[in-house]
Amino acid sequence: MTYHPCSAETSRKSGALTYPEPPGPPRPVVGDLYFTFKIHNHLPLNIKMLSKDAKHFKSTLRTYLTEHAFYSLDEYYQLTS
Questions:
Q1: Residue ranges per structural domain of the chain
Q2: CB count, 10 Å around CB of 73?
Q3: What is residue 52's DSSP assignment?
Q4: Could you give the CA distance from residue 6 to residue 62 in angstroms, rounded to a whole number?
Q5: Spatial contact of 58 and 50, defined as CB atoms under 8 Å apart
Q6: How much is the pLDDT for 56?
Q7: DSSP summary character for residue 71
Q8: According to the 3-state scheme, what is the secondary structure of the chain?
Q9: What integer pLDDT is reported at residue 58 of this predicted model?
Q10: Any idea what the Cα angle at residue 41 is, between residues 33 and 43, rounded to 5°?
């Protein structure tokens, strides 16, 4: 994994998690880490701000997911976009 200052700077300022691009030709990125970042980046801002406080983050996220009851990731992405 190589360090790319532009992506780190952009990520740090926006609060979004980014998945580092592997060296070589572009290929589809699939895996748990990719989806974790993608789901986190679509969370409402008030929940994202709590990610440093694990106890409050967990309880707020649980409440949010219970109230909305998403049945698929597509439904989640549509509501949170």
A1: 1-41, 45-81
A2: 12
A3: G
A4: 34
A5: no
A6: 94
A7: S
A8: CCCCHHHHHHHHHHCCCCCCCCCCCCCCCCCHHHHHHHHHHCCCHHHHHHHHCHHHHHHHHHHHHHHHCCCCHHHHHHHHC
A9: 93
A10: 120
Residue given tokens 């740090």 in the structure block: 12
pLDDT in tens, the chain (81 residues): 444 545 545 555 566 766 666 666 666 666 777 888 888 899 999 999 998 899 999 999 999 989 988 888 889 888 877
Residue identified by tokens 């949010």 is 64
User: Would you tell me the crossing angle of helices 73-80 and 32-41 to the nearest 10 degrees?
Assistant: 30
d(CA 70, CA 79): 9
Report CA Rg, the chain: 15
3-state secondary structure of 67: helix
Could you give the 3-state DSSP secondary structure of residue 66?
helix
Distance (Å, whole) CA 60 – CA 48: 10
